[in-house]
Amino acid sequence: MAARRSRTPETSPGETNADLAPVVGKNLRRLRTERGLSLERLAQASGVSRAMLGQVELGQSAPTINVLWKIARALDVPFSALISSTQQSPVKVLREKDAKRLLSHDGTFSSRALFPFDEPRRVEFYELVIAPRGVEAADSHAAGTMENLVVSKGQLELETAGETYTLAAGDAILFEADKPHAYKNPGSTETRVYLVMTYAEQVG
Q1: How far apart are CA 197 and CA 140, in angstroms?
Q2: Helix, strand, or coil (residue 52)
Q3: Cα gap 174→150, rounded to integer Å
Q4: pLDDT confidence tier of residue 119, bands split at 50, 70 and 90
C-alpha cells in the first residue's frame, strides 16, 4: 500500500476521546473477560501493548481510532461494541453540539458516530472530517466488512488494495475494508465524508 504506515502514539491528546474513556474501558474489560482472554493474549492478538490495554480498561487512557480498530478486530466485534452505552429510546436525537468525536493521534482526522451507542449493530454510520493534507491509515477490519463512502465537502484520496481513488464532493465509493486502507485529504480545505460501515454477519 502506498500510504506510509509509521508507528504512531496509541493515545490521543483530544478531550473528546477522553470523554469516552470510561465507556471504552468498561466494554473492553467485559468483552475480554467473556472471551477468557488475558491482557497478554489480547496484546498479542491486537498488536496493542499490554500496558496500554490495562490503562484503557481502567479508563486512564484515551486510545486513538486506529488502536480501537485493532482491539475490535482482535476481539472479533464491531467497532460500536467498544464505544456503546446502555441508553435506549424509540427516538434518539443526536445533537451536533453534544457529539463525541474520536480523534487520530495528531488531531487531523476525526470520526463522529451518527447512531446511538445503545448496542452493537451490523450497520454503522459515521461522519469523518479530515484536515488539509491530513492522512489516516486504517488497518484491515473483520473479514467481509464493507465501507460505503460519500464525499460531501472537499477532496478525498482513498488508498486500498494498492490502488488510489480520487473523489470530489458528491462522489461515492464502495469497497472491501477487510484489508489495509487509508484516507487522505490532498487539498488545502477541510474534507467531510459520510461513511456507512457494514459487517458481514449479524451481531450476537
Answers
A1: 13
A2: helix
A3: 9
A4: low
Q: pLDDT tens digits for 132-187?
A: 999 999 989 888 999 999 999 999 999 999 999 999 999 999 999 999 999 999 99
Nine-digit cell string for 98: 453534544
Backbone angles phi, psi at 111, to 5 degrees: -130, 130
Distance CA 30, CA 74 (A): 14
Q: What is the spatial distance between Cα 62 and Cα 10, in angstroms, rounded to a whole number?
A: 8
11 in Cβ contact with 59 (< 8 Å): no
* Residue closest to 137 by CA, chosen among 43, 2, 5, 47: 5
The whole model's pTM is what? 0.60
Largest CA distance in the chain: 48
Instruction: Enumerate residues 6+ apart whose C-beta is below 8 A from 26.
Output: 59
Q: At 85, list the grid cell.
A: 452505552
Whole-angstrom distance, CA of residue 13 vs CA of residue 178: 28
